Amino acid sequence: MKFEIGQINPKDHEGNLVFLYGTVVADRSLPLSKKELDYLKTCRVDEPDTIVVFDRLPYKLFIVNFDSELDADQCQERLRRSAAKVVDMLRNAKQTQVSLTGEGVIPEEVVAFAEGLFLADYTFDRYKSEKPVHIEQLTIDQSFLSPDELKPLVTLWDCIRQCREWVNTPVSDLNAESFAAQLQQRAAETGVDCTVFDKKQIESLRMGGLVAVNKGSVDEPRFVVLEYNPGQAVNSKPLALVGKGIMYDTGGLNIKPDNYMQEMKSDMAGAATMASVLFAAAANRLPVHIVAFLPLTDNRPGFNAYAADDVIRMYDGTTVEVVNTDAEGRIILADAIAYAVGNYDPELVIDAATLTGAAVRAIGTYGIAAMQQNAENAFNLLRIVGKKVYERLAEFPFWSEYDELIKSEVADIKNCGIPQAGTITAGKFLAHFARKTPYIHLDIAGVAYFTKKQEYFACGASGYGIRLLYAFIQTYDLLNKPADK
Ligand code: BES
Ligand code: ZN
Ligand code: ZN
Fold it and tell me: Rounded to two decimals, what is the model's pTM?
């Protein structure tokens, strides 16, 4: 999708036009006849969010009604959702260009709508012989936004698109090695430092977890470290982002039964999310020092695959009893977290991982199951920006009783506990490796990949969490400022 900023005059506009119509307006610039206006008003009384479409053959005029007196976050989310409906209508009408203006609307609302339009327009077309119709050009009214304001937004949105492509691509076309190569290339383009550790180097680092999970695979593992260090960052110690990069999760020897394996190409969404956040922050020169740690491998039941009862010695020396080879994400993440903490002295570690089916059962597909250890302030900020961008956190408890559930008879800890509280014990396992460093765990299993279209998320990879973490990084300096007295 190409974006443009331009002058739009609704009354004699040539082309498809979206007119955002807030509640506090005087109907000055609506390009409607008296009769049409009356009709519009009756629609609005019944259903404040309706989209009324007028045919202006060969074009369409979409009047998007919205309640601008709502809470700002709610209002913007509704506009993103309305945008998804407009995308459907444009696609059905095979239209490829549209312009955007409105009245009784503020720039943030126009941005929310444009964002929804971009996100909803995405479909995964890579393997389709006949490509679906997409919006090729969006022109936004210059009275709401300048080109300089638009540019960083488009960069962020494009990083979300890239994340979705990576996650949607099956392992047959994207394994640990090729994903690492793509990250390296992207890093070079964005001015980000990138180190890729291959199998030999991972072995000599003694990352026992990543090595163990990779044992059943014919594809080599990779460990990717991306570093973006702007001059004069607001943080003196880096922010560490760790992402689960299981290129495919068969479950390993504890193989996933019947249709539980489907969609497990998305098990590297955490890694794709964290890489995309870092690239967006770097491309837009946000003043925050960020390092991303991405352990990559698939989880397969090959001949020498790791097995239940194995004991693994992890990067930091912790020994782990394997109880179930399908709880593999925490094993590779633990090495990455320990590596981050041991070598970079980060002020905060955040991980994103499609870690547990239990997270999906607990809260469904409407938010992130989140936990924190020693990171209350950062967590609160993350929660607030999450509400704002509508990528929300549900905090799970991290009581010390849960630590007991992962103690092992034969090793220091084990990789799963009892059938209850599976999302929390997974988080606790990871928190062990963060030690005293402030730590936030984001279980994105419910939101990373949608089996069917959900609002402005196409079926498949969502990129959920990128806008959240980007907004967090944008407001990151708040954390380093002393509180007002
Ligand atoms: N990748 C899965 C978790 C998952 C499940 C993500 C469904 C998205 C949708 C993870 O590696 C896994 O298999 N977890 C097990 C853990 C169990 C063996 C303790 C699970 O959740 O069943
Ligand atoms: Zn698994
Ligand atoms: Zn997994």
Answer: 0.97
